[in-house]
Amino acid sequence: MIGAILLALAPIALLIAFGHAMRRLRFLPDAFWPQAERLSYYVLLPALFIHALAMADLRGLPVAELALTLIAAIVAVSALLVLAKPWLGYSDAAFTSVFQGGIRFNNYVGLSAAGSMLGASALPLAAVANAAIVPTVNVLCVLVFARWGSAQPTLRGILRGLALNPLLMSCVLGIAIQLSGLGLPPGVEGCLKALGQASLPIGLLCVGAALDWGALGRGLKPALVASAVKFVLMPLATYAALKGFGLGGPAATLAILFQALPTASSSYVMARQLGGDAPLMAGICALQTVVAAVAVPLALILLAPG
Question: Which residues cross the membrane (predicted)?
Answer without folding.
Answer: 39-56, 63-84, 125-146, 158-178, 198-216, 223-242, 248-269, 281-304
